[in-house]
Design brief:
Number of helices: 22
Helix content: 40-55%
Strand order of the largest sheet: 3-7-8-9-10
Mean pLDDT: 86
Low-confidence stretches: 1-7, 16-68, 199-241
Shape: globular
Structural class: alpha/beta
Radius of gyration: 28 Å
Largest sheet: 5 strands, parallel
Length: 620
Amino acid sequence: MGNKINTGSYIFLIIYLLINLLINQLVIGHPRSYTSTPITITRYSENTNNNINNDNNNDNNENNNDNSTTILKITNIDDYFKQREEFLNNESLRYLGNDLILNDNEIKLNEIIMKLKEKEFNDGFKNPYEFKASRHFFEVVNNITNSTLFHIIEKMPKGAVLHAHDTAMASIDYVINNILNNNNYSDILWYCDNTTTTTILDGINIEDDKKIDEDDIETTTTATPEIVTDTVTDTVTETVTSISDIKHIRFLFSKEKPKKLDNFNDWKLLNDIKKNYDPKIFNDFLYKHFTLFTDNPATDYKDINDVWQKFMNIFLTLDGIVLYEPVWEDYFYTSLLEFYNDNVQYIEFRGLLPKLYDLDGNEHDQMNTLEIYNKTLERFKLDYPDFSGAKFIFAPYRRVDNETFNNYMESVKKFKEKFPNFIAGFDLVAQEDLGNPLKDYIQSLLDLQQSNLDIDFFFHAGETNWNGMDTDENLIDAILLGTKRIGHGYAILKHPKVMEEIKKRDIAIEINAISNQVLKLVNDNRNHPASHLFSDNYPVVVSSDDPSFWNAKPLSHDFYIAFMGLSSAHSDLRFLKKLAINSLKYSTLKDMDLYSAETMWEARWNHYVDEMIKEYSEEL
């Protein structure tokens, strides 16, 4: 009998649903009906204050029959716009920074900033080509730098930079003006060049299937008169008649003329070379070789491998200059100073930790490099007491065999034991698509976690446009290995489980939007995946990666692009403030060090707000 009753009920229910479906189709199909379109809204009690975060208070909402989410039909146009406003308000509560409450002075500054932002958005909407944040950074960097909004962002206390690489931090202006044009080096700084095109993978010349061994790494990260070996595939002509023909250049400090590099022209003193050219022409030539900057980025770099080849060659070109021990110390101090002057108060930077050399051709071990870092950092903190410090992430090349990788593991343990407060953790660098995936080294990485040395991971992962390849799946391995942050994470939208886990585990994504554009992952930054992360309050920080290689400020240009290109037109001062707060929150600073940094930042922030109101009040 029970079965018969259930069957009858089912038949009745089906007939009822079919009738309602037919009625709904007839109503919805009416061309002038404003009352028929159903929308899904969340019904809140009076006690919820329309706070969308309350949806998360009960993980079992889907299983509870509490009618918290209901499909309502709009009865008139007033109801429609009322519900539309509620919809937008609920969505805006999820924007990054919208959990912050601005004080009276911040509200005044916000009005200034939003007036400027709205003008740029409105002008760009009318004429999309003029919207600076949507175009390639090389095309608009000067326009951005000269804008009032950029000036306000530039002066903002931005907290920390958590993703930068050591030999791409100090400006190329410094390299050229203070080192290459320094008369004190006129009789010890040597130069050579060639006219061939070299295929460079991971910054090292290798055959297609050859893995890099430890010796390969040593010869490319150490520049001494005796051991440097650069290999170029083609034969070159000894005499170069035109500066435009030169493809690669190298530098070296030495008392005596260094040993000739294979397939490069002979070494000559840089000072003698400069005498043959107009100073401006030669400086422009140097800029071309020390940056990726070009007037035609879309055509000059045909694909990601092409631009990475030039990118890695810049590091090789710089090595002979910055790895000279006296220069290394000054370069690092200048890097700290330039970041400090861009209102960055703390840095966590990555590096290969190369061996430095002296004029006699002697090379010094990696512990010596760390000693210089520490000594220089302490000197800088004495000179600038409101600088909160810096930490180092050991980040060697990712395309190596297992033996070399195991040597990495032993090295980072020794570094951490000797410099426990300076070594933040471990990462792997170079072009992710061409490197080995994290899964190749899982056992070694798991063993490192068991060392009880508190060595955290900060993996580059998902710096790719591919989907379902080893590169984007590095995101999964990074999470399973317990990474504290993820560098770039560009492919994250293709992995919903990864997105779920980074929220659950509070793993910050280090966003480097200008880098991603220059290295050909995205053309228009409005399409950058971080736009989604910003819109739904994911744990994120904004960093600059290798700012000197694209003539960017240490952090201000990346903040501008994030604010204007990646965030909503509605995102305001709270968004910028949240980025600064997050940068310290997701750093490795702990306890009193973190408290001190946050307190110092807050004082600088309040002073900044007051000063900007005074300086830009006419914008209201």
